[in-house]
Design a protein that fits this description.
Low-confidence stretches: 119-129
Shape: globular
Strand order of the largest sheet: 3-2-1-4-5
Mean pLDDT: 80
Bound molecules: NADP nicotinamide-adenine-dinucleotide phosphate
Strand content: 15-25%
Distance between the termini: 15 Å
Radius of gyration: 14 Å
Largest sheet: 5 strands, parallel
CATH class: Alpha Beta
């Protein structure tokens, strides 16, 4: 995997999730900029408050349905790495790539870090364009 050093920009998907909030905190503390994706800006307002001290290094963008083709096309623009934590929790997986849209990264996205378990749809390594 390519090493991406701060002050690079990292896209953290599902930024309001349990793991993601810690991932965001760690990246910000390490000097990175973070763009978090959420399904609802109003339900995720607490994040703006929580990370207000990091100023413009933290931003939120809306990605409402991660299963839609091209859902992340805008969100990945200008990011250097992707920490993909957003994941539906269910046992009915027929299309393993359903939540893997960030795998088709913007050319400047150098690293892809999926977070998953046996109960979440699998995500593979990113394809470079
Ligand atoms: N927590 C653990 O101890 C642990 C351990 C090992 C692995 N994992 C894995 O790490 C990942 C994240 O876990 P977590 O505990 O942080 O889960 P979580 O708190 O439930 O967060 C999941 C995130 O995914 C988003 N999401 C769920 N379904 C979505 C959909 N259909 N479209 C868009 N976004 C969706 C949620 O958005 P909303 O808030 O809007 O629903 C939330 O931001 C999962 O793959 C999990 O299996 C977790």
């Amino acid at each position: 995997m390519v090493a991406v050093s701060s002050p690079a920009k990292v896209l953290v998907t599902g930024a309001n999730g349990y793991l993601a909030v810690w991932v965001v905190q760690k990246y910000l503390d390490a000097g990175y900029s973070v763009r978090g994706t959420v399904r609802s800006l109003s339900r995720s307002a607490f994040l703006k408050e929580q990370f207000a001290g990091y100023g413009e290094r933290f931003e939120l963008v809306l990605v409402e349905d991660i299963t839609k083709d091209g859902a992340f096309d805008e969100a990945v623009k200008g990011v250097d790495a992707i920490a993909h934590t957003a994941s539906p929790f269910h046992y009915n997986v027929t299309e393993p790539d359903g939540t893997s849209n960030p795998r088709r990264p913007h050319p400047t996205s150098d690293a892809f870090l999926p977070t998953q378990s046996s109960s979440s749809p699998p995500c593979g390594a990113p394809r470079r364009s």
